[in-house]
Amino acid sequence: MHELALAEAVVAAALETAKKNGLTKVTRIEVRVGELQQIEPEAFRFAISEMTEAVIDVQADPARFLCRRCGLDYGLADTPGPGDHDASEAIHFIPELAHAFLRCPACESPDFTVTGGRGVTLGAIEGD
Amino acid sequence: MTDGVDPRRAIIPRRLSGVKRVIAVTGGKGGIGKSVVSSMLALVAARSGKRVGLLDLDLTSPTDHVILGLGDQFPTEEFGLEPPKVGGVHFMSVQYFLRERAAPLRGQEVTDALVEILAVTNWGELDLLVVDMPPGLGDATLDAVALLPRAEFLVVANGSAIVLETVRRMLRLLIELRSPLVGVVENMERGAPGAVPELARVSGVAFLGSLPADETLEGAFGAPDRLVATPFARALARIAVPSADAGELLSGQ
Asked: Which residue out of B6, B8, B114 would a mutagenesis test of the A interface target, given it has the greatest number of A Cβ atoms within 10 Å?
């Protein structure tokens, strides 16, 4: 499953960051999950916890878009959504493919910037 | 401590750890034949018995699927995405998701999409991964060079003055980036004879040979069995044999 691949990336990045900062053990990992990528936070937390003993804190990050044509600032709920299952899956794997499926609710432009809630980001980590 | 790190980059080397060799096919100019050379190289190498992958990194205008003849194959989800075999080649492209749609992408989005694909694609064990590079010398090319530090570059050119002008810049860029160069191939011989070998020579890069303008190729697109029987495929099998000590690209050559 795709979430496992991203979970592995989170753990690898957390360990790399810890090492760079002189930590030998990671005790807490904060992860932000963008709404656009449609990853279920609890399932993702579980996937990461299978790979590390650190405490995992997953926070949902709402998706925001800025239309490059009319300037509208909008959220995912302001659009009809990606449409069918295939579209959701495409965005799930590669969030940038939102440009193929989502349109500005005011002017229907596919030229928008994702200003928040794109995908998985590593937040603060703690360790000793 | 350290907020906002992109976790995906850390995992890319691991996703490619089972790949023995990465050849990135570039040229700088659109229409020069990067996709044809990439796809044909992958097909010919796969027919020679190697385990071969092909990654189409032209995210806004992918075309390798047309050459390979993509049917209803789709990546399987098994700890990331496993590319299905198309024409005997493990093939990854955004085409699986895009179909006929247009996905306009700006700079940072190109970067993000490249990182995402490289972070989630599970190539497994491969003898060779051919990467069809994005056109131009912009964000997409620079990102691909940075994200694929093991890539060796195969540069496609022809003798047209317009192409030579761009390929010269591409070679200079790759040399300045200290990217390993496998060599230059001439595709669809045209323009001044000897111009491409001369460009390779003055650039200090190996000239690997010429590929013919093969009129049978277009009609064979989508049919791997016919593609590998074309004069183009035979010429490619003869020349795409870099002398790099990493080993030959195509067995039996």
From this structure: B8
Counted domains in chain A: 1
Domain CATH for B224: 3.40.50.300
Q: Is pLDDT of B242 > 70?
A: no
Cross-chain residue pair B97–A113, CB shorter than 8 Å: no
Give chain A positions within 8 Å (CB) of B103. 96-97, 99-100, 110
On whether any CB of chain B is under 8 Å from the CB of A25, the answer is no
Is B3 part of a structural domain of the chain? no
Number of domains in chain B: 1
Buried b (16+ CB within 10 A) or exposed e, B125-145: ebbbbbbbbbbebebbbbbbb
Which pLDDT belongs to residue B146?
Answer: 93
Query: Rounded distance, CA B178 to CA B192, Å?
Result: 29
CATH number for the domain harbouring residue A91: 3.30.2320.80
pTM of the model: 0.92
Each residue of B80-91: pLDDT tens digit? 899 999 999 999
- Judged by DSSP in three states, B191 sits in strand
